[in-house]
Amino acid sequence: MKLVTFHHSGRGDRVGAVAADGSIVDLNAAYALYLRNVEREGAFYALADARVPAEMRGLFENGDRGLDAARAALQYALKEGPETTGPSGEAIIFRRDAVRIKAPIVPKKFFHTAGNFREHHTEAQKAGFSHPVLPWIVFFQNVDAIIGPDEEIVYPEHLTEELDYELELAVVMKKSGKHFSADRAGDYIGGYVIFNDITARDIQRTEMKSGVFSFCKGIDTFCPLGPHIVTADEIANPNNLAMELRVNGKVRQESHSSKMSVTVSEIIAHYSPMGYSAGDVLSTGTVSGVAAFSGDPKSLYLKPGDLVECEIEKIGVLRNPVVSYREKHGGKSVAAA
Asked: How many CB atoms lie within 10 A of CB 251?
């Protein structure tokens, strides 16, 4: 399944699945209908709210039981057809242009990996970056910085002149756990999603003098995530995926998840002593080709008006425009905004 969080003007935020034609199925409403018509359950709405909640983290908190129920709901809705309605006559299937797709999930914790792709580490060394990023290290992302597909990356000109991109594969956990080995990691993977690790390089360069970095990556809107979560059953090997990032249609990053220094399972197991909650997100590091480590960084740094497209095989494309902080706030100063 391709799971999305979508907003409908009359229904608020809901959890959905993307059909082959691009339409969106409301999984909670579809499951209520399935329970009434197929399972002959009387308390169909209450059971639907418990098993297939209308909030993504709640769905993953139900683990395989919740995901299996979501699949049953999707299959039933598609079988019944686009005009089918829920038990109270509510719409179940929406045209893509009738809803707004949001970030698929806002996790409790966002584990961030740096230095996992050797090619990225090598280009950093060649560029003389201020502090070695040894493979591999973990830090936490600011979840309030998360934005979804087509939402704006806001360029804060008062903070940085070096706005960069970093394409990453991210993992969504489907159950809680701690202290487990790599051979058990697959039991915890619920799905995969694209992450664009937007970074203010001038701020990062200063932060890395102390050997840490966080603010440079955690500024508002610096965490595009999406366009949907592809459930783990659809990706047999996450270490076998083509990866590409484009700016205004031109390829900037092009690589493959097989080039990680350590596998997805090894990363998940290594971080497990910190403890996972269902719905937590874990990134796996970026590939070579970032602007900062190129021969001409200034020509490649992001600027207002750019369109960034992140693509990972079997997942999809995450698109986000870049806008000016000043223009977005009508030319107001930082204090006034």
From this structure: 12
